[in-house]
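Two proteins were folded this term; both appear here.
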Amino acid sequence: MGVTGPPGPVMDRDEVDRALARLGAEHEAIETSLLALQDHAGRRLLEGADLTGTTKERWTSTEASITLLWAYFDAYSDALRAAREIRSRRRWSSREDLVELTELLRGDSVTIAGSATATANAPTLHGGSGKLSEQFSLVTLVERMNELYAISLDMVVAADAVWSALPARIDLLAAELQRTRQLAHSAGVRPGEHPAGDDLERITRILTSLRAQVVSDPLAFWVPAQGSSAPGGGKPDTSKYDREARALDEVRREIDAVLTVRQDAEARLVKLRDVLSRADRTLAEARSARGEVLAKIAATEVPVVSGPPTVLQEQLATAAEYRRHAQWHRLSPLLESLEAKAEDELLRARESLSEVTQPLAVRAELRGRLDAYKAKVARHGLAEDPFLIERYDAARRMLWSAPCDLRVAEQAVLRFQHAAAELLGAPRVPQQGGPEDRRGPGA
């Protein structure tokens, strides 16, 4: 929709013809725009919708603007038709015709008489007074129509954009929500019994409310583009929809986890029983080894081995009961907790066994070292040396006697190594630290 040139003195015939041609082109452009607005899907939806809030207020004003637009256009058409009739009276317009045409084409020659309702609701531009009757030049009238058209189109396009984007997406999400509810029901996830069931109820309520708000007040979900003056510049606000879509995704993942539990619950329970059984056997072995250490190793503080925790067995029995009654939503978190605790228990049992059997490992290492040096001496033909035999027998008696004092036995092994090294002409074996003394500072 264009704007005519500025007013001026009395126009000549060429100026009149050019002005009429320009006004005719503008008339066609304005008519095309108004018809397109009249047929716009958003406008038809707004006419039939039960609107509320911001959209209701804007549409009341926009309806009045559209009514004024047609009134302005009719007046503009009448003025243009009158000018064409004057120009068509004669081929060479007279001075009087040119004066009349100049006043019609450039002066405030158009009178607009509107209804009180239309002018009361329509926006007043350029500080207008909103009078029931106004005088316009054709230039001013075109400007007025352009501005009213832009405001009306902006409102219609914004509402249509929201209606085109959000309700359909909400309906698709609602359908996905319904499928998720069915899965949740099959997995035993119900409101009041599982957080995911409560989340599904909350999402359902919010989506129902959101759709009703979008249908009745679409402009409440419209974000205008910053710095844009073009009609319809902006985008729908989908933040509420996006938030609920993410929440539904989280619920769906949780339900999928519950359904996965239903598929492999038996295998996981069998594995749990095996892990806890291995932990029990390891603890039993540690208790047995502790008795052996106390009987065979002297002057050693052996840690006490605790028994298996009964709470894990009770929780395992509870998990089996959940599986038996298909309470998958309760079984899922319990299995995850039990699997972590069972692995920790097996690790604790192995550490207990290692701590208890450390003195036996030290004794075995000393025995191996003594026999290795004896074999080395024998390879060099010194196996019958009385001094070495005496040192060897002393160390062996200490290592193979019960209870065995590991500190004294290690010193005996070192004396045998030193004696062997001297006879073999090798460097002396450096003094080595003894086994860890677990008796404390008073030993």
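Next, the second protein.
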Amino acid sequence: MNKELMEALDILEREKEISKDTLFEAIENSLLTACKNHFGKADNVKVEIKRDTCDFLVYAEMEVVPTRDDVEDECLQIALEDAQEISKKAQVGDILNKEIKSKEFGRIATQNAKNVILQKIREEERSVIYNQYYEKERDVVTGVVQRYVGKNISVNLGKADAMLSESEQVKGENFRPTERIKVYILEVKNTPKGPRINVSRTHPELVKRLFEAEVTEIKDGTVEIKSIAREAGSRTKIAVWSNNPNVDAVGACVGMNGARVNAIVEELRGEKIDIVPWDENPGNLIQNSLSPAKVVAVFADPDEKTAKVVVPDYQLSLAIGKEGQNARLAARLTGYKIDIKSETQAKDAPGFRYEDYMYDEYEDEEYAGDEEDAGNEEYAGDEEYAGNEEYAGDEEGIGDSGTGDEE
């Protein structure tokens, strides 16, 4: 048994995660290369390695010819006289296996064989690292900040280095060397110099993966993140849905005393996170997405993916947000183009009044020719309108203390 070789292979397999079969293949190729360098050719050379003992045998398949004068190529043919010294049963025309002593190889042949093994080990190591991080593509990993390369940041992920480019950095975030940060793996490329890993701190999926890691209900599928919109470094909105009526989706994400969401906010260096309930009804979803602003009415067109929203006068700036951020994130979250007006503005704006839609409804009923039903619809519409006025009145009542008594 070749104990030294066995121990060396065990160490490589354990530390580099390279399989022994691959290493045995590298040794075989290296021995064939050494034979080619030593003899000039190796077409008839065979290498056998016993996997359990690491003992190896190198031999050349040679044709037996009658005399030494008949030998035309010493690498391919052997005289009968010499062949019988190896095997007494050898006969002219037989194919004889002649053992090659690898210790007899010259320095150059030996060095080339060594280089073949080292090259194979390097290739396999790169392949193992590539496969390991390729499986983590579109996932979050923890890395250690190494150094700044221009405006880019080199992040060590353990067995490989990743590059956090300037475009994927959050403005205002500054990292110190040796600082641990979480990054989202955007892409893993296989290059001759090893895997190239690009990571991000601005991608919306970073927030989603952080919630999956922090919130048990999301990890087990009880709560789903239906949609997410993010302006990195400033604010993120996520819409969540619970598959279990006994589980509050928003509460599960927030955690007791805000523990879960605060852990994510801390990792994102203070980025604000709005968690709203998902709703299949576009109007309700848009109303939720504009939180914390209150909404009087939403007129959504699912076909055109547009929505007209009416808010109390004193809530207009809150609904739009600083530099339009709240409305912009709500539009990304819902997929609707949202037009927001205050109650005062909506009175003179087509499409922002209940009367506009009630008139269409009344016309449809009148066209149907049933005057009695049309009357009922008109009455029902009045009731609906009255109900909305009552809701609007409540909103005005809320604002009375701040805006003055309308009455």
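The chain has 14 helices and 15 strands. The longest strand covers residues 180-191. These notes refer to the second protein only.
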